[in-house]
Amino acid sequence: MSARNPGMKLDLEWVSKVRVNTQAVLKRAQQIQGHKLLKKQWQAAWLLKAVTCIDLTTLAGDDTPSNVHRLCLKAIQPIRPDLLRKMDMHDKGVTTAAVCVYPSRVADAVASLKAANSSLPVASVATGFPAGQTPLETRLQEVRLAVADGAAEIDIVINRTLALTGQWEAMYDEIRQFREACGDAHMKSILAIGELGTFTNVYKASMVAMMAGSDFIKTSTGKESVNATYPVAIVMVRAIRDYFLCTGHKVGFKPAGGIRTAQESLVWFSLIKEELGNDWLCPHLFRLGASSLLADIERQIYHHVSGQYAAYHELPMA
C-alpha cells in the first residue's frame, strides 16, 4: 500500500460550501463511457494490470474455510500459467492485490496464504458490514479482532444516518476512532453511495472520510441496490483530487459492487487515468472490489492467446 493518509482537522466550512453540478457530472460520465476501448495486445496488457488491482472477494453467508482457501489459491495464481507463459508474463508475479473476507474468516485466509508462502495481504470488512447499524463499541471491537487475526487492510462502513442528517463532526469522530483501532492496517472507508441520496452528500462524505484519515474511499458494500456507477465515481475521485491539492496526501479509490466484465474494468482504468493521472494506476491507490470479474478477465485473456473463447470447465473459477 502507499504512504498513509494522516488526515487533517475537520474543516466544516469547506464541507458546508460544497455543491455538485449534477448535469456536468452526468455529461462527464457519458464522455468517459463513450471512449473507444483498447484492442488486441494493448487490451490484454491492461486486463493483466486490472488483475493486479482486484481485491478478490467472498462475502457470503455460506463462506467456509475450504472456499476461503480456494479463493486464496486463485488470488495467488489468478490466470492459468500456460496462458501467462504464452504472453511471456509467467515470471512477472501476477497476483491479485488482496483477498477480502468477513472478519471471522480472516484467520483462515491468513493461514492459507502463509501455507502457500505468499505475502498477499488479507482485507477484512468490519464495523457492522454492510449496514453499520451496530453499537460503536461493537464496531470498534470488530476492527481490533480482524487486525489481531492478521488483516492488513480494513474496509469499514460509514454510519449513513450521520451522513444523511448532516452530522459531519460525529461521522468524522467515528472514522477517527476506526483509524486508531486499525493500527498499522490500512483503512478503506465504504460510503455506500446508493444510500446517500445526492452527489453533494457523496462529495461531503468522501471529504470527511479523507479528513478523518481514510487511506482509501470505496463506493459500496455491494449489498445496496445501487453500487459502483461512473457518475458517483467522478464525484469521489474529484474529492480525492481536491484533497490531494489541499494536503499533498494521495488517497486511494475503490469501486465495488456490480463490476463483472473485463470491458468495465477498462472503463474504470480510463476514468482513473483521466481524472487522477498515472500515479493512481496501481494497486497502492486503485482497487477493484469484485468476486466474478476475474473469471471474465481470464476468459478474455484465453481468447487473446488462443483466438477462441474457453468453455466454462476450462478455466478454474475463483
Protein model, in words:
This protein is α/β, with parallel strands linked by helices and 318 residues long. It has helices at 12-17, 22-33, 40-51, 65-76, 81-86, 106-115, 136-148, 160-164, 168-182, 199-211, 230-247, 262-275, 293-306; strands at 54-57, 98-101, 122-125, 153-157, 186-190, 216-218, 252-254, 288-290. The protein has an eight-stranded parallel β-sheet, with helices on one face. Strand 3 (122-125), helix 7 and strand 4 (153-157) form a beta-alpha-beta unit. Helix 3 (40-51) runs antiparallel to helix 13 (293-306) and helix 4 (65-76) packs across helix 6 (106-115). The longest helix is centred in the last third of the chain and has 18 residues, at 230-247. 48% of the residues are buried. The mean pLDDT is 95.
Outline:
The protein is of the alpha/beta class and 318 residues long.
How do the strands and helices of this protein lay out in sequence?
Elements: H1 12-17, H2 22-33, H3 40-51, E1 54-57, H4 65-76, H5 81-86, E2 98-101, H6 106-115, E3 122-125, H7 136-148, E4 153-157, H8 160-164, H9 168-182, E5 186-190, H10 199-211, E6 216-218, H11 230-247, E7 252-254, H12 262-275, E8 288-290, H13 293-306
Parallel strand pairs: 1-2, 1-8, 2-3, 3-4, 4-5, 5-6, 6-7
Helix pairs in contact: 2-11, 3-12, 3-13, 4-6, 7-9, 9-10, 10-11, 11-12
Keywords:
47% helix; 8 strands; globular; eight-stranded parallel β-sheet; 318 residues; 10% strand; alpha/beta
